[in-house]
Write a structure and sequence with these properties.
With 354 residues, the protein is α+β, with helices and mostly antiparallel strands. It has 7 helices and 17 strands. The chain has 3 domains: 110 residues, conserved putative lor/sdh protein from methanococcus maripaludis s2 fold (Beta Barrel), CATH 2.40.420.20; 83 residues, Efflux pump adaptor protein, beta barrel domain (Elongation Factor Tu (Ef-tu), domain 3); 89 residues.
Length: 354
């Protein structure tokens, strides 16, 4: 009997303890949450990124740099002269040939209208003189002759406008030089070779940092997956960009041989001896890619780093040649990705604050 009563008392005590525990949790959670928030607010997060004139600067103390494994190196100066490697595409000439055919048809129609106008004008002058000489011909005959002459003049004006618009369209699409070759009244050996399919037209893309080619310049073309090199001669600057490559575009012509319309070709061009560029080598280990653009972090003083875009047009053995940086520049060769994360962590934080 006593054991049963003791068990009941112990059970009631256990229930009371559980109830008191949950009451403590229920009434104390708000105070705990307020305390936690207060503590977090007291802990000030370190802001290592500042922004001025749209440029973000990451500042890390020497101790943090050492603990994070960030390492920098001074860039090496280089006077570059070598081969420029790029790509090109064999271009279809259908629209240019069609434009030449259309121009010939318009010129033929214009010549016909001009001949007709001269005939009707002579007839009008004769009839007008007869009409003035005691009405030897009727006024109606004179008016009909004038109407025919005016119609011919309208056709002349219309064909002239069409010819000028066609020439302007070809110049805008193909460039002034190539348009002149294609639409010239005089036979042109280069364009005749293109029309006969003995030669082809290649649109070549060259880096922005390279000088524009001149008449007589030669590049070497190699069809992709081939070892046969073909010499191509410069024609003129192109007006359309290469959608598969970056840089300035130019037209070259080369023997057709194994080249086909739409074929991609590798391009190699030797820079002129007097076209040496002075610049620096950005090491491969310093380059990070973001939004399809190569970047590197440059050290401004003992603890500040700024991300700057670099050029990846000219690749050398240990990195990329860049003519736009000083030889005194110092870049991050290890830990650049960490700096990028730190920079964008700051940007995300600012967006959340807004």
């Amino acid at each position: 009997m006593l054991d049963k009563k003791a068990a009941t008392i112990i059970g009631l005590q256990a229930i009371l303890i559980v109830v008191l525990f949950w009451m403590l949790i229920f009434y104390g959670k708000d105070e705990y949450e307020d305390f936690r928030i207060e503590q977090e607010e007291e802990i000030e997060s370190i802001n290592r990124v500042t922004e001025k004139d749209g440029i973000s600067t990451v500042a890390l103390s020497p101790a943090v740099q050492q603990n994070s494994g960030i390492k920098t190196a001074q860039v090496k100066a280089l006077s570059y002269q070598g081969e420029i490697k790029s790509f090109g595409t064999v271009v279809a000439l259908d629209t240019l040939i069609n434009a030449k055919t259309q121009l010939l048809n318009l010129k033929s129609a214009l010549a016909t209208s001009q001949t007709s106008y001269q005939q009707h004008r002579n007839q009008y002058v004769r009839l007008k003189a007869l009409n003035a000489d005691d009405k030897n011909v009727s006024d109606l005959a004179v008016q009909e002759a004038l109407a025919l002459m005016n119609y011919d003049q309208t056709m002349i004006d219309s064909k002239t406008i069409e010819i000028n618009n066609l020439k302007s369209s070809v110049r805008l699409t193909w460039g002034k030089s190539l348009a002149t070759l294609a639409l010239s009244n005089q036979p042109n050996a280069m364009f005749s070779q293109l029309m006969a399919r003995k030669n082809v037209l290649i649109q070549v893309s060259l880096p922005f940092s390279t000088p524009d080619p001149k008449n007589g310049d030669i590049v070497a073309l190699t069809p992709l997956n081939s070892n046969n090199s073909i010499k191509a001669s410069y024609i003129s600057a192109a007006t359309q960009a290469d959608m598969n490559g970056a840089g300035k575009t130019f037209y070259y012509t080369a023997p057709a041989n194994n080249l086909r319309i739409g074929m991609r070709v590798a391009v190699e061009m030797s820079m002129a001896k007097n076209a040496r560029n002075n610049g620096v080598i950005i090491p491969s280990s310093a380059v990070i890619w973001y939004a399809g653009t190569p970047w590197a972090y440059f050290k401004e003083d003992h603890h500040q780093f700024i991300r700057k875009p670099i050029s990846a047009d000219i690749e050398v053995d240990t990195g990329w040649f860049n003519p736009s940086f000083s030889a005194d520049s110092e870049v991050v060769v290890r830990g650049a990705q960490l700096l990028l994360s730190e920079e964008f962590k700051y940007l995300i934080k600012n967006e959340n604050d807004d």
